[in-house]
Amino acid sequence: MITKFGEKSTKLFEKYMPDAFVFAMVLTILTAMIAFMWLNATPLKIIKSWYDGFWSLLEFGMQIVLVVITGFAIALSPIVNKGIGKLTNYIKTPRQVYIIVVLIGTLLSLISFGWIVITCVLARELAIRIKGVNYPFLVACVYFSGGSWVTGLSSSIPLLLGTEKNYLIEAGILSEIIPTSYTLGSTLNFSIMILYVIFAPLMIMLLIPKTKNNKQLDDMLEDKTEKKEISIKDEALSLSLSYKSISDRLNNGVILQICIILMGLTYIIYHFYTHGFQLNFNIMIFIFLIIGLILHKTPMRYAIAMKRSSNNISGILYQYPFYAGIMGIMLYTGLGEKLAEIMASVATIDTYPFFAYVTGGIINFAIPSAGGEFAVVGPSIINAVKDIGAGLPANEVSAMVSRASLSIAYGESLSNILQPFYLLLVFPIMGSGIKIQARDVMGYLVVPFIIFFIIQSILLTWIPL
Predict the structure, then answer these.
(1) What are phi and psi of 229, to 5 degrees?
(2) What's the rounded mean pLDDT across residues 101-118?
């Protein structure tokens, strides 16, 4: 019954789900209409808010791009490719493919949401080697596995709360940082992590499509003879001159690389020695950068890896400003704050995590960025939680703020699987050489969404922080 429901959902999405860019346009118009009819915002106010929003998240957008391409560069390294090659030798059936992809995907995404690209590389390689794999369902498995990032090292809301002089502190909403021991290191976060790492692969076993007419990768390829890309090492050597030169020695030597790596490692050690295990986007990106330099050995090889990685971000570059524009409408017209206030007004000391969770899920459809969404609804939710916890000890109020913030993050992450924006990270790899759209994938994710919504609602309400 569950499988049939998933298949029906897939057909509905195929019929009604537009392209991801069209989806962003529809959301823009819809958000503008709500602001106009509900808040009586003037058309000019809405358009100005939309325009101002376009440029309000450039730094954050650049951080996302760098997380993706530095993570992808690591995925392109020889040691990672060899590991993938060895792993594929032990997997024989489509069922094993789905389970392994979800398991490895959740583990990799705990390190960084950008590492979903490594899962993509693995999944595509398995689809080439193993016959009978339903490729759109496999893409859905990869996309779903990326949801574990919200419990891991690149979870943007906990990292923001742990960042010195963040905008919440500067605005007086928080008096000090909230350490990651309250968020990423909490019992609640570990329970959600276990849900992804252990329960998700088992759940996928029950959702495997039973149809005999699987859309296999071989059948979907437009060019049946896929061209094998030359290795990064060979490409680097091919760029050398026919005679010895200082420039080639610098390009393909290891001395410069080693010096930069040693400088980078020194700072990383210094950072954790002086700040403890406090993570933020900048240090995460820096760590990935240094790891990439280590794995690729020479400047030219790393430059080529980064060039190839950058092919993965075109969709983010032109679609992200549109979502930032939607955020602008919600922020500057007061629509986001109004929605958060409504949710917060009905919350109690027992129910505020659930309402924060639902708020995060709903707003995410308009602002598919945990950091951007939190900038819109976070202040209102935090102020409401502080009012609810008035009179309690400071550490208990901090715990309540942490739980509410995590709830927003979990809601945002879960609704991502019904929001096609982050498929932009998956399609450049898994959709290479084939015709595939969001509508071919999203229907498979309806049932996982329902199951996880129920379980997460229970956990975030009752599990101790």
Answers:
(1) -75, 135
(2) 88
